[in-house]
Amino acid sequence: MEQINAERPNKLYYSIKEVAQMMNVAESLLRYWETVFPSLKPKTNQNRVRQYTKKDIEQVRLIYN
User: Fold this and answer.
1) pTM here?
2) What string of H, E and C letters represents the secondary structure of 1-65?
3) Is residue 28 situated within a structural domain?
4) Residue 3 domain flag
5) Arithmetic mean of pLDDT over the chain
6) Which range of residues forms the domain containing residue 20?
7) Closest by alpha carbon to 57, among 27, 29, 20?
């Protein structure tokens, strides 16, 4: 699994595509996990684009394991 801080150490939000690539899973699996695990709720912007924080990514890692 890719490190969170590898490219941009000061980055606040990651796209679903970036998180899916980090975890080596499909974007659809991340969207599914949001429906199953109430603790996984990434922020969404006006256009309903998911924005994952480092805390969200850690939650995804826990779910993945």
Assistant:
1) 0.80
2) CCCCCCCCCCCCCECHHHHHHHHCCCHHHHHHHHHHCCCCCCEECCCCCEEECHHHHHHHHHHHC
3) yes
4) no
5) 89
6) 16-64
7) 20
